[in-house]
Amino acid sequence: MTNPDLILVGEGFSPWTEKARWALDHHRLRYRYEEYTPLVSEPWLRIRANRPSGVISVPFLFDGDGLALGDSFAITREADRRGDEPALVPTDLLDEITTWNERSERLMRAGRAQILARTEESKEVQIESLPPHLPRAIRGVLAPTVRIATAYLRKKYAVKPVTDEELDAELGPIRAAISDDPTRPLLGRFTLADIAIATALQAVRPHTSEPPGLLPAQREAWARPELAARWEDVLAWRDAMLERRSAS
Ligand SMILES: N[C@@H](CCC(=O)N[C@@H](CS)C(=O)NCC(=O)O)C(=O)O
């Protein structure tokens, strides 16, 4: 059953948001998407989620009936409950999917460390981080304020830099899982493991067009060209997963 009252709040550049969108799209659930701006959007999110204190992050899924889920794994399980397509977290694969999801979290967190550092260095990325409905000239003037948000996010997520070599260790198991067939789902059938890893590979090199909310300077800021050169087969697998997504 589709529910037109579903609302997904997220960040267009974020792999966590992309993961939740993919899960909802897999089950062909209808939802309205709302863009979130760190700090600025937080008070309204807290009111809607009835979470006055504690850490709160996006993606967040709401329905008109009191459902408020603030985690991409939980959103996927809700999509499984509401949708009719094959489950993304089948119970027989729960442990394996959890392990792949944890690996995807480490990759995404490495990406966050890099994008925060690059945002602090680049005025163009700062401009892209501001709400797009503001005129570009205004965003240019406001660009330095983005550092308030990056400092806040650094503290909130205890961000620390991750080296290419540390990421090599995360990428090896992906190569091992797909080696004999570059279009093979990681666990033999398509699950959240594939969605989580395919979206997290944005931290190695973003796909040319996904996620659509990732703007040009941000796209460049995520990329790690030297690392990517060592993992072209893994990135080709990611591209095949995304093609499968757009074809379905
Ligand atoms: N475990 C969460 C993590 C989500 C997460 O880290 N979200 C970050 C990146 S999109 C966020 O909300 N950043 C903005 C903020 O904290 O204000 C999930 O899987 O949904």
Task: Please characterize this protein's 3D structure.
The protein has helices at 15-26, 42-49, 72-82, 94-121, 123-129, 136-142, 146-156, 164-178, 192-200, 216-222, 225-230, 232-247; strands at residues 6-10, 31-35, 60-62, 68-69. With 248 residues, it is an alpha+beta fold. The protein folds into two domains: 6-82, Glutaredoxin (3-Layer(aba) Sandwich); 91-247. Strands 2-1-3-4 form a four-stranded mixed sheet, with helices on both faces. Helix 1 (15-26) links the parallel strand 1 and strand 2 (31-35). Helix 4 runs antiparallel to helix 7. It starts with 5 loop residues before the first strand and ends with a helix. It binds glutathione. The site of glutathione (GSH) has 14 residues, from helix 1, helix 3 and helix 7.
| Overall morphology | globular
Tell me how many strands there are: 4
What percentage of the residues does DSSP assign to strands (E)?
Answer: 5-15%
What is the rounded Rg? 18 Å
Query: Taking strands numbered 1, 2, ... along the chain, how are they ordered across the largest sheet?
Result: 2-1-3-4
Average pLDDT number: 95
The topology string of helices and strands comes to EHEHEEHHHHHHHHHH
Termini separation: 18 Å
Class inferred from helices and paired strands: alpha+beta
Compounds present? glutathione
Instruction: Provide the number of structural domains.
Output: 2
Which stretches of 5+ consecutive residues score pLDDT under 50? none
Largest sheet: 4 strands, mixed
